Amino acid sequence: MTFRFPAIAALGGLLALGACTDPGGLNDPNNPNRNRDQGVLLGAGLGALVGNLAGGDTEATMAGAVVGGLAGGLVGNELDKQERELRASLGDDRVKITNTGDRLIVTLPQDILFATDSFAVRPDLQGDLRAVSRNLQSYPNSVVQVIGHTDNTGDAGYNLDLSQRRAGAVANVLIASGTSSARVETVGRGESTPVASNLSPEGRALNRRVEIVILPTA
């Protein structure tokens, strides 16, 4: 019972940290601490759930929330920092970086990576992939999924194989540039997960892509 009040106080501090900017800060894309704040709140919620399942009482729930909130805040801070450094190191503004608060997604349009029907990475894009690899080496506490996607033009089986080959080609550049192969997983999804309509040339171009998904492990 002696833990109850420190836990409640600490949880209150975490929630205050999550709202320390302004009431709409979590939804403000210009808030530099948005992902840290989201990490605090999400981590606190998950930690509270785990604590409740583990102990079933107020003390365990609060303890879980405190630990989870601290861990979530640290992950959010680290991702924000990694994102800033990665953006500064890339030389092509067509490469898109999305920070969801729990992962970074680097999206490379197929048309800047490969010639038509090819899975050989264009020489001018290898420099950006080497920059991604250097960034990954600076932040070793993560695993990396390299995921290939196509539009729906042509045979679905061919598209699946091509997406796998292209994911493998990008992964090979990352590994050859120093990223540990043990951290890297390649996935081909073919035409199965479009992000836009395949009914227009513009939509098909968005669907032809390779994503490098950086998932923190600590």
TrEMBL record:
Stretches assigned to the OmpA-like domain: 101-218
GO cellular component: cell outer membrane
Keywords: Cell outer membrane, Membrane, Signal
Record Pfam families: Gly-zipper_Omp, OmpA
Gene3D superfamilies in the cross-refs: OmpA-like domain
Descriptive protein name: OmpA-like domain-containing protein
Record flagged with keyword Ribonucleoprotein: no
Compartments, as annotated in UniProt: Cell outer membrane
Signal sequence interval, chain numbering: 1-21
Annotated coiled-coil segments of the chain: none
